Amino acid sequence: MALQLGDTVPNFSQDSQLGPINLYDFAGDSWVVLFSHPADYTPVCTTELGEVARLRPEWEKRNVKTLALSVDSAESHRGWINDINETQQTTVDYPILADADKSVSDLYGMIHPNALNNLTVRSVFIIDPNKKLRLQITYPASTGRNFQEILRVIDSLQLTEYHQVATPVNWKDGEDVVVVPSIPTEEARSKFPKGVTEIRPYLRFTPQPNR
Ligand code: BEZ
Is the pTM of this model over 0.90? Predict the structure, then answer.
């Protein structure tokens, strides 16, 4: 059955351009963004992997490790990374899994044969430090991902995890957040000393607690 949110993600060991990677060992106590791309030496993928490298300080700020994957070899990844570094003005320093035997792609359902035969589509998995799946998104091969959106989701997930708030439509870091329905308003007023605005008993806003 396909992976679902809240599931413990399956562990794996696979080669990468930096040597073998065991997912659970690699993750340690960090959050992980595991993302697949169709193939090395392709234009959209080149821009994406460059952007993920450029965003290194943003991942670190959030205790996130990034882990890419395609079904190309580790040798192919090493050659392509030189091109990414040169054309995207960055340094790719995170592992790209070399899933030539498709074992991880199959385990995580990253190959969608009716869309792209034998290659991985653009899957994204956000995994929390307890190895639970917190988000999955699938993009078509022809659409480069918006990694600012991935960061935004991580900010939202971490606010829920560590501060018991949710984030409303189009929320961005720094904007007011929503008190989760399980917290009564009176309890919310003591829990969130910056103030709680009650629009309806079920619709309560508070300033972002970690700002
Ligand atoms: C690309 O990365 O540019 C790409 C890969 C597969 C299909 C379409 C575009």
Answer: yes
